[in-house]
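Let's do one together. I've listed all components of the complex below, 1212 residues spread over two lines.
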Amino acid sequence: MRTSIATVCISGTLADKLHACADAGFDGVEIFEPDLLAAPESPEEIAALAGRLGLSLDLYQPMRDVEGVDEAAFAAVLRRAEAKFQLMRRLGMDLVLCCSNVGTATIDDDAVSADQLRRLGDLAAGYGIRIAFEALAWGRYVDDYRRAWRIVEQADHPAVGVCLDSFHILSRGHDPAGIAAIPGDKIFFVQLADAPRLSMDVLSWSRHHRLFPGEGEFDLADFTARIVEAGYTGPWSLEVFNDTFRQTDPRRTALHARRSLRWLEDAVAREIPDATTHRGDLSMLPDSAAPSGVDFVEVKAEDTSAIEELLGQLGFTSRGRHRTKPVTLWTAGDARVVLNEQHARGWEPRLAAVGLEVDDAEAVDLRMNELRVPRAYRRTYATEERLDGAIAPDGTEVYWAQAADEGDPAWVGEFEHGEAARETAITGVDHVSLSQPWDAIEEATLFYTAGFALRVDSSTDVPGPRGLVASRVLVAPGSTVRLPLNVAPPILASQRAGAALPQHVAFVCDDVRHVARAARERGFAPLEMPANYYDDIAARFDLSEAAVDELRDLHLGYDRDDAGEYLHFYTRTIGEVFFEFVERVDAYAGYGAGTAPVRLTAQGRR
Amino acid sequence: MRTSIATVCISGTLADKLHACADAGFDGVEIFEPDLLAAPESPEEIAALAGRLGLSLDLYQPMRDVEGVDEAAFAAVLRRAEAKFQLMRRLGMDLVLCCSNVGTATIDDDAVSADQLRRLGDLAAGYGIRIAFEALAWGRYVDDYRRAWRIVEQADHPAVGVCLDSFHILSRGHDPAGIAAIPGDKIFFVQLADAPRLSMDVLSWSRHHRLFPGEGEFDLADFTARIVEAGYTGPWSLEVFNDTFRQTDPRRTALHARRSLRWLEDAVAREIPDATTHRGDLSMLPDSAAPSGVDFVEVKAEDTSAIEELLGQLGFTSRGRHRTKPVTLWTAGDARVVLNEQHARGWEPRLAAVGLEVDDAEAVDLRMNELRVPRAYRRTYATEERLDGAIAPDGTEVYWAQAADEGDPAWVGEFEHGEAARETAITGVDHVSLSQPWDAIEEATLFYTAGFALRVDSSTDVPGPRGLVASRVLVAPGSTVRLPLNVAPPILASQRAGAALPQHVAFVCDDVRHVARAARERGFAPLEMPANYYDDIAARFDLSEAAVDELRDLHLGYDRDDAGEYLHFYTRTIGEVFFEFVERVDAYAGYGAGTAPVRLTAQGRR
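Okay, and this is what the predicted structure of the assembly comes out as:
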């Protein structure tokens, strides 16, 4: 499978883009015309640069408004096209995208469009060029790929085929099953983009909100499988118009884009039965079960003693100091908190790493390599457990290790001079909330879905006193791992994400009231929830007065859905991190979204 | 006319919001329930604070899902409502907003909803409370204010009336003429919001994109006039859900919001004939003709000599130094550029001020005072022309002065030791492009529309190599003044707006080729446009080869629309500013949008 990407997907000058795409491992690019027009290099210089970088120039795009016009207008089309064909020869290119007419079409007739495409094909063929005709979702008359194919079929010219773009087809809800009717060799090009399902005009949706495969809600595995099964053997090319990717570092975005195609290749390989001839060289990623739990969380700071005091009050046990590093371990049930003072000069406490338990650590390792995810490194000595990890887009280090059969994982034995684990109602980690820079959330989504087989569970906006916090929850199957990813309002964007919006770890308890009460006896002061909040709980839920009084007394948050109840309390924030303690009654699946705005306001007062 | 604002419009804690609204001169507020729930103050303390600040608490909101439900659900509604009525008594409030049912409605029957509102009214009346029923645009059954009014009419209860919200009515395209059918005393409350016309689901549009009056595309003057004519005498209250205003400084946003109501009061006063009794105390702003031209632009820097050299090359005349300040004047035709080195230590050149010519400077002055716009101050001596100005939201100082009948304005006489103005093909200022911080664009729009009667002419996104630049053009009637306001992509947001995206002044010429050629002879080097750009011009327009060669030779941009042609060239950027020279052939109305991306790329190379 060959990979390609439209230069409009990423930022920078055309030369920047070519370098970034080559470095990221793409085989070729689509030249987006405005990028060429703005480039100081001549077409010959661009062709030479691409050649030197090993990139093929796969598609020149777009040529607009070429068919469905009257003869006078078509004469102008041919004149303009000829100039572009000459330009393409200078670039050494042989395929051009013609989109269905949006601006100048006056004739709604397949025969006219077919005739004009045929004559354009004659002109193109003289330059050794082929035309890929694409139905735009908002084309004036031609807005459906099945109609575009009928027109191409009628044009019946060897230099005229179709271009299929997943966005134009799936955004309109058109059934990709019709792709089977198109001979593979008449599919001249394929453009791939994912997108969230948005209710807005399709042009704005297309121009601003496309995503790389795996980040949105389109079924791209099915779409692409149809194309492969139709016999298409050309490149899989990304065309993603996105306001964020247009401004982020092109090298980073190109790697991110390439990773999305590796994910898609895997998904398509799983979609197409082995037996079919079309599957070709498509390769699956190493199988890796999703994580079965959180192995540890690590808080890093120059001085972690305020965190130690807090964990002690909350019933965690100090399990001692690592035998080779300035690192301590605190545990409660299966919750393990590593406090790290190494290489942390000047750091306020922040969530620096998360460890996940997996069934096959080797497979995750291979998978991360295939996805070209940057790797995390921690020095380990011969007598220590190996620590494999990757760096998530927000900078958090994510490690993975074989799940222990029973009891503590082996690495716990590297900590010395600790106490024996105490009984506690805390049983483990419920969720880990990671604050994301606004320009990393899509990349982070792909990191967790492609790397660890998590899936997007829900998205919501949480109103805080300084703006809306966008929250997207990723979960492992069975909710064994839950990662809410939160983006702070942009006015805070110049700060570190964790400083703008603290991160937190939520620990799950059998009896959160007991944990809260025991902590209070050890001197713990929770984040104070306002009295008005409890008046509202009393108005909304039919709880007894005593039950509400108990919530108020312990500063517990409360929520209920059809499946169960949620009780929880928060610590104060230390540096960039705080903790939450939660109890899920029955099958409550949320995160107490009603309490979060109150919590954000209370945190704003600190 | 009394003014009010929902606390959800602005950022901060509830106490912050009350202070900000009082400082901005609002008479009252709507208490948005989540703000109260998150507040540490008791209801009595909030009531006392509001009293001390002179704010009335006009509306408690929202109460959801109260009607169209079965009897079991309605019993829960009454229980919940009673708790809220008790809370409202503690706040000393007597009006609550009930929105049409979105979540729990199962009965689509006016009679049922009317009966339930009547019973809710009975309960409310016992607490001295009235209910304002509002049709949400996305209500499950009740989504039209006319139906809400039918239900209220049928409920026929003195404690039950309607709330009319401009967004819910105008977003759906419902004709506000129906308001005339509602007796004024049954309109219990009015909520006002403007919005851009967006094609998206109405709930997202409402929750994220509302604007203050005068900033969007709704005809709020007409809407509000209908309400006044119906005999409504309650407060005009703003309810604006907007992602930006939720995070900006609440004091600034509250002033901005209050200004929008002053603008609306004027617009409504002009809409309602004098003779009607309903007009009441509505007061117009002082009449002020829109500006008739640009008086001057000012570039400020510690050292302006690089700008002087450039202006000299371009044919401007040095008209000397100001007699009391380190300021020089350069002119060409009616274009006047003031170079200011005062109080500019460490500044790179930036566009610091714009002077506008107006017909009635005194009226603009009064108008700015009424709008409570912050004033600009420049020291002037007894023998000098007075300089009245205001500070635009982006920090640019905007001055206004009586237009001169003929020749130079009087203040030019304050400059000494200059040369006599030379002949030049430059005739004046075509447009001034001001870079805006992303969180100031709406406030800036209101500043220019309310203060100077400009109007929004067009909006577009310009793709640059580092992201999309959002551009909104404000023009005076007759296009005597054109101000494109540009917002840089957010990745650059941590920089000063002008540093992220340079500002520029475009000068208009009779013969831009002559200006370019003459400048070249004086050593001027324009911003270089790439050869590929000219190949595209040759392909797109039927220009002679000689004509394209001349454009290429002079680095001229070229555009054409149905009305005419546009030829222009750019200087290099110095500090945060550059200049453009344009020639408009016939009635071309644009700004060469096709060239802007090429220009942004060329500027990125500097």
